[in-house]
Amino acid sequence: MTVIDMPVLGQRSSLAWHALFDLSEKVPNNWCLVGGQMVHLWCVERDTTPNRPTDDADAVLDVRAQPTILHQVTKALVDIGFESAGESPEGHQHRWTRGDATIDLLIAEHVRGKAAARRGVTGGTTLDARGSNQGIDRAELVTVNHDGRQAQIWRPNLLGALVLKAAAFTAPLDQGVKRHLIDFAVLSTLVTRGDQLAVQMSKRDRQLLGNAIGAIRIDGTIIPVIDGADLGIERLTIALNA
C-alpha cells in the first residue's frame, strides 16, 4: 500500500486532516477524499508543492454501495464533536465544523429517489458532486502519516482525480469553477508515462478531459503560473489522442 507523509501545511488544514483521521477510525469505508486536500495529497505523493491553499476537507459518500452512509458519517462526526454549519433553503447540510476544522460532505452524482433523499443524523440531506462517481469507482486506499498520526484514507487514482476536477468545472451553480481548472492543471503536472492514462480512459473521460484542457488554453492565465503545466497539459493531450 502507498504510504504518504503529509506535512502540516497550515493550522486549519492540519485540523481538517486530523478530522479525516478521526472519521476514518469510525467509518473506514464507503467515502472518498476529494477536493483541494485530494490535490494536496497527490502533490505530496509526487514530491510537488501544492499550488492553491485549502483549509477544509471534502468527502464524497458512496450512497450506491451503502444507502445509509450519510446518516452513518454524520453520526460519527457528531460523536467526535462536529456540528452542522447550517441548512440551506433546500434542506442540505453539507458543511460540518469542529472549531476551525471543516469537512464538506457530498454524495455520488446521478443518485435519485430514496438514495438522494436520505438524511443525516440531524435531519438534513446533502449535495451531489459532479464527477464523484469517477472518484469513487477509481478510489485507492492509501496510508497517510500526518502530525504524528497515521490513517488509511480512500482517494481517487490520478485519472479519477483529473476526471473529477474536469467534471466539477462543468457544475453550473459553482461560482468558483476556475479553481477546478487550476487544480486540474496542477494534477496534469504529476502525469508520467508510467501512469498509462490512455488505456484507462473511457469515451466520457476523454470528453471531460478535453473540455477542461480547452478551457485552460482559452483562459490563458493558468498555464503560465503553474510550473510544468505546459508539459502536463501536452501529455494529457497526447493521451487523449492515443
Question: Gist?
Answer:
This protein is an alpha/beta fold and 242 residues long. The chain has helices at residues 11-26, 35-45, 69-79, 113-117, 132-137, 158-168, 178-188, 203-219, 229-240, and strands spanning 3-5, 31-34, 57-61, 83-84, 95-98, 101-108, 127-129, 139-146, 149-156.
Helix/sheet category: alpha/beta
Named CATH topology of the largest domain = Beta Polymerase, domain 2
Per CATH, which architecture of the largest domain? 2-Layer Sandwich
Shape: globular
The count of DSSP E runs of length 2 or more, i.e. the number of strands, is 9
What low-confidence regions span 5 or more consecutive residues with pLDDT below 50? none
Helix content estimate = 40-55%
**Gyration radius, in Å:** 17 Å
- Strand fraction equals 15-25%
Number of helices, where a helix is a run of at least 4 consecutive DSSP H or I residues? 9
**How far apart are the termini?**
30 Å
User: Secondary-structure element order, as H and E?
Assistant: EHEHEHEEEHEHEEHHHH
User: Mean of residue pLDDT?
Assistant: 92
In total, the number of domains comes to 2
Query: Which CATH C-level class of the largest domain is it?
Result: Alpha Beta
Main sheet attributes: strand count, strand direction, barrel closure: 6 strands, mixed
